[in-house]
Amino acid sequence: MASLSLIPTGPLPARQTTIISTNNGTLGVARPPLPPRPGPKHKETNRSDTILGRRLIGGVNEQRVLRYFAEFRLSKTDGGEPGDEETVNREIGKSIGEDEIRVEDDEEEDEYTPRRRYAYTREHKLAAIDYFQTTWKKQKDGIFKNISNRFASKKLKISRKMLRHWVTSKASILQQKRGSYRTRQPWRKVREEEMEIELNKRFIEARSQGRKITQKWVLRHARDIYGKLYPDRVIQHTNGRNHYLGFRFSSGWFKGFKRRYHISFRSSTKRAQKTPEELHSIIQSWLQFNRRMTVILEDSDCGIPRDPSVPLVGRYKLSEIANMDQSPLPFELQKGRTYATKGSRTVALRAARNGWEKRQCTLQIIVFADGIARCKPLLMFHGKPTSKDRRRTAEMKKYNPGVIVIFNEKAYANTSNLTSWVKHQYSMASAYPTRDREPRLLCLDAFAPHKNKGRKDPGRESQKAMEKRLAEETLQQQLREELAKLNVTTSIIPGGCTGYVQVLDVSVNKLIKQYIEEEEEKWIEEHMEQYKAGRYSVGDRRILMTHWVTHAWEKVHKEHRDTIIKTFRQVGLSLNPDGSEDSELKIKDLPGIVVGDYNRPAIISDDDDEMGDTIEVQERGLLYMEQELEQGTAEQEEDQGDAAIDSGDDTDVRFDDDSGSDFDDEADNDEQDGDCVMD
Questions:
Q1: 426 pLDDT band (50/70/90 cuts)?
Q2: How far apart, in whole angstroms, are the C-alpha atoms of residue 549 and residue 378?
Q3: Residue 473's pLDDT is what?
Q4: Residue 473 contacts by C-beta under 8 Å, 6 or more apart in sequence?
């Protein structure tokens, strides 16, 4: 038996807790209990007051986070969000007690909508996440609860969606650089690498041949390669367009393709001659003239009443409003800007034939406000108008029937051509019989044949010059009579304004020339050997041009009919004259323009010679000089700056000055070309 003297009476050694009796195994001596702990001491920190380790609303931490956001917004904009200035000027308050923290339930808190969107830095996002996840509030029943997304976003003056996105993207935000605004996207593998490799091969081959590469060329070949790789992913619609499953050919992909293969767009710059503000009053006067011509008055000619479903624009049927214009069409389309490899010092473009960059023809087209094609395109080539050369006869049999082809000595429009077009083409381009004489509105640009004006009487002139002037005046009188027979009101666009309010210049001309260029690219790819050898003549080029123009014209009306209709409305030609649809008026670079009071006289003044002298818009739709109105005359100086004017003066600018006659071998040395020889 162990002696009791062995039982220690003092404190036990370290790590020894009990002494077991050797007699019965019971606890002999237990370690005396430790004295009660005093508890953790309060540490003075710069954080907000906490209860049981929780940050509470209204504390120092919340005040500093809110000031952090308010100072940032005030540094970016004047005024920031409502209450930001008060938040910044408010002194950081002292700690608050538990009994002072009382708030309402989440359901009673309104959602905050920021006045504008701000780009916050990485530190702001992390501070907002920390505030939302570590801040508590005391409810009415005394229970503590984490603050809600609605409450935190309202305090921070951000949207709930933004805060929710930051919380879910916390891992990626932590990987951002300090002070950065966005998370860097990780490198992703190219989805259709095989397609891009083949596309780059085609690009390099085309550039080695001096071909012009555009964005449309890249997209067209990319779709072709994709369709060959995955034919089961191509769906053809009834309108002829293809829909590609699994790939969008977006602008983002196009930018990535250029970056991956070091391709850049080599281009030159162009400066505008006039600012839109200088043309504001002139365009507004033109809009007011159209409104006066369109509004229905007591004695207005509204035509024959039709079915209620027929769309009307004042006194005109929608189908009777049109815009006609001529534009030069070069024989050489493979010129201008192209994509090429970065760093290349020489950017070469292969020409089809030497000298063809100086050859041009004129393309005349007309579009209607309902987007329906009623007139064939008109091509004007250089040559004798009445030539009966057997080669021309054989060549004309190969023209595409979808276009009208005429020849004149200057290859651009004149009064005689315009009169013939009105009589044989435009007269039939109505949705109703000609005998009904439905009122029509024809919008034209300001060049001499359109304005129906000859030159002023020069006083003393030679017999030859007088005969030429009188012949021109006779043709103009015939044109006026033809327009009067058709009940046509002409709306003349002032000079310098066609790029803003002429439908064809705003949208259609660019589209049709792009499609013509695309048709040429397809032909070159199918006849590469003939293209390289240059084995086709001027006559062959004219034949090809008729086919390209026909296909391009059909595509424009098939794929972009809505664009034509929308453009007519944006320039104000097909808007309701009561002003209820004026909100759709959208003229480039003039966002605040309005029609205004169209009852006042429309006086257009400009000091620039290109714009002409002071002119007044009369109710008949003609433009006259103010001095001529006082003298009782109706003549106006021709615009020498318009390349399409045919005033009869040999000094006028021509489209095809160096081409000579197409069928006179002595004139243009075209004998060796072998006109009308097709391989």
A1: very high
A2: 9
A3: 86
A4: 454
